[in-house]
Fold these 3 entries.
Entry 1:
Amino acid sequence: MLKLFSVPQISYMATSPALSNKKIYPHFFRTIPSDLNQAHAMLEILKQFEWTYVSIVYSDTEYGNHGYETLTSLAYLYSICFSTPQRINKEHFKNEDYDTVIRTIANKTDVRVVVLFAEKSTTLRVLDAAKRLNVGTRFLWIGSDSWSSSNHRDFADLDSSRMGQEMAVLEGALVVQPLSRQLSGFDKYFTNLTLEHEKINPWFREFWQEYHRCGINDTEVMIREEQDLCCWRCRKCGLYQYKVNDQRCEDCLLGTRPTKDSKRCDSIPEEYIDYYSPWAIVAMVVASIGILLTIYVWFIFRIYGETPVIKASGRELSSLLLLSILASFLMTFAIVAEPITETCAITRFGIGFCYTLCYAALVTKTNRIHRIFNNISHSPRKSRYTSPKSQLLITGILILLEVIVNVILLIMVPPRVKHIYPTRDTKIKICQGLDDRSYIVSLIYPFVLIGHEKEKEYEEEKEEEEEEVKEEEEEQVKEGRRIEIEEKEKEEEDPEE
């Protein structure tokens, strides 16, 4: 199954030679030698002591069958003959069947050496049968790696009243065991593991309970405050804490909250304005209407662009003003979009830029009209820098200042997304600058242009008031002269009468 999902598997006891086939088991590894090495070792022992005629008993399992096949396939290289092989079905064999195996070897062959290639349980039952039949020193046993030194103790415990016969059966026995050594620190590390290790080893809980000989209550997430292995006083982790190990809880970071089992912290779902938010939909509808109206006005300008009215209004600056209005409406879609680095950059740059584009055109246009009318009253010569190219150049210079400011701000503080947490269970995604109002810096220059425009309007209103006062004074002077003339005419008429 693991092969299907390309999951590596490491075994500490699987010795089958078949597992060495990397074409079939490409992701299997082991820390123990293959049975092929064990078979060579057994055959080397037989050859060394010139035991060339031997019997073999093996279990009807993958371990036993592979061991038997490996031994028999290599036997000719060592001039070894295996006589009367006995296969044991450990699932169905009873004591009588094991006794039959021993009798067959004892009665039908002249062998003295028996190779045992079987699992621990099968090996013990074969040796127990030899003990029951009082074989004594008739056979010399050579066992595979499943029969370690601990098996001797297990075998001896089967019937302690017959210790002499047991030792007679085991006398001279040889066991092939892979070379191993104690790994420094491993036992301490492994026995000190806590239940947190269950996250990466789902079978660890079973080992932990067996090793410490105690059960585990899964109904609540607890940590222990006393150091007894199986009995301790427990307390619950906090509402926003997760269990680090059996002794400690820690707070979840902002923007996260503990899972139901409190074993880790999961991220809180983000909240943000996007195109599906009700407020965003209203804003986009209004912006769309504004875009359509702006495009409609632009078409009117194109159609009647050569008329005196359009020319007198300044086609170039009017077109630039329409462009700024269109860009301002389009900015709505960037502002209500999901906050990402790109939309944050567009928003920070675009808000101030659109206002600057609009007010720079208005300031230039107002200044042009003001200078033209002032020049008419003072000089018959045409005002300088009032041509369309000059006006566009002046507007471009005014806009360039805003562009420089915005670029510097973007370099000093690169656009990025951040999160704010109004409550412990709320995580709002915004563009950096919206929380501390730093984006207002890009609006300072447009406000200056607005102030300049207002100042121009004030000056024009003041001049209009002065003109009105002069006109009133002139009217009063004219009225006074008219009255004087009428009085003189009356005086001239009276003497004649």
Note: The first helix runs from residue 35 to 48.
Entry 2:
Amino acid sequence: MPLQPLTSGQFAEKVRAVNRPGRGAVPFRSVTAECALATASAEINRLGLTARAAVLGVAASPTTRVTLFRDGARVAVGAGKGTGHQGAASAYFEALERYLMSARDNRRWTADATRLLSATVVAGQSALESDLVVRRWAAEFPDAVAACASYGGVRYPTFLTDPRYYRWPVAGDDVRPYRSLLRYSSSLGTAAGVDLAEAVYHGLCELIEHDGLGQALLRWFVAGVPDVDLVPVGDLPDGLRSLHAEAERAAGAPVHLLDVTTDLDVPVYLAVSRTADGEPTRLGAGASLWATDAASRALGELIQVCALSPSAAGSPAGQRLATWPALQRCASMPLDQLLSGPVRAVPLRADVAGDGSPGWGLEHVGRALARHGIGYHVCEIAPVGSPIAVATTIAPGLERFSLVRHGVPVIPTGRGWHLWPSPDQATITRPHPVRAR
């Protein structure tokens, strides 16, 4: 469905029309969606920005897209997951996140937060020992200097956490010596919320989500172990079954829910759907302490992908990787090939008992990482005085190989390295048995 531009009044009315009455609180959010939407609007006004909202996609499952402007120039775009107030709040917060991530007045740019450090010094920090990109930077360009922000005592290069940084680097940071590593630059781990716990929880879950996806791609298409755990639609609770049906309507094709949870035991799901021949598989991913939330996020993201990218005609990402067939398969994720191998039906994982607050979720996810020797470190981004929190979280060792889906030739960045050399040398550790609901 084509984009539908709306005035602010029309948009508010449409939000009220599709907002589902009687919905409970959104898991792992600190306030109601209505309150979050008001907070985001207040921050946009405080920053001197203007917002334009649009609704696209199928009418039953609309996707909100918000564009931010300063003096008529576009500065950021965000898209939301979910319907009604939740979908709108999600879009507004993502737009603010993307704006503040690179804004010159964010906290990462302040003089006391940023230092120019050599690759050797950065890689020498014990907390970054498991980050293979940082180690590669030091091995290939030991004297290269880059701006590094503070993550609670750990210094980490900004060029790896802000994809737009290379356009306006800090004075003294000549990006050219390490430009070959810019392919590993991403916003993974950066998230926004009404408070810091919410932002960090969702940033950390995004890293865990891509750790699961990256290891699955490596296992399936590089190590040659095409084992798939599939959650049957009939085993889903009613709410997720309805959302699954909405995803199928948006995709215009069957949708499969895959469990790619790793040994961290934090649920990670992929919602995937076939496309026309030669086009990459459409994919939505989600991770959360609650499996129901993780699956909902995966299905919601697939709906969003279908609305924002109705067609992947030409598959430029896959074409850029034609020289590397295994990487090309990772980028396109051929679903027919994947599902033709061993497929195991598994139930949706059980939700652990808890209050579903961001603070509670962050505590338990942090423990899950610590059990595997993985720590996380946080850099606050939103300016002092902002009513929202935007933060970048890093968790050295978690895999970011999923960046291959953007059509860039990458190799494993952390825990997936053992899957890289060859199927003969790969050591496959399957997740713990799934507990029935």
Note: The longest strand covers residues 63-70.
Entry 3:
Amino acid sequence: MVNKFESTYSLLNIPVPVRQRTGRSIENIAAVRASVQNEPNQSIPRRSQELGICQTTLWRILLKDLHLHPYKIKLTQELKPLDHLQRRNFSDFVLQKFEENPEFHKKIIFSDEAHFWLNGFVNKQNMRYWTATNPHVLHETPLHPQKVSVWCGFHAGGVIGSYFFVDENNRHVTVNGVRYRAMLEEYFWPELDGFDISDMWFQQNGATNHTAGQTIDLLKAKFGNRLISRNGPVEWPPRSCD
């Protein structure tokens, strides 16, 4: 009571004034909620301008009052009209194989190539120089950067590879039909010597160097009809994630 009297000069319970929120008012919260429902992917600056609410207050309303989170979109491969049917057919094929053998997926050798740039990659969105004046830092990149193409296969038993595509002078080269078939015969076939491939399947994507007539014939001679590939006995769906 002594402390109360010294601070307020009264023994009565005087209510403490509450600061009124002008920015995060009920009206502004309702306006932001309606705006988000109508256009959820609008930018903060544009929404702030349209609603007449400063960006800091808008952020607080979105996060603290509406409990929303700014999720990023994900990019995915565009599908053409006929792709859906082909994907469905392939799914039916896989389900049928699983009914015949629950461990069908362990009988597939999946394969793919990847390209690695040798000059390094700089993401300018993540690179910052903290300094009092602009140093005008430049990072030079070649017009046609050198890259290396690597192939590998993987299955339930492990990884086959990696195989680097190089020419007779050990220089990195791009992949074409001739080099891909040379890789199959000179590298992949010997790697399979220790495997029983009588019931193994081979999968590859629809790259042109994979689906040339000579390449398909070469693979069918090795795997028979157990080939999952565009232009093969079992069609690999186009625009599928490898």
Note: The chain has two domains: 21-65, 81-228.
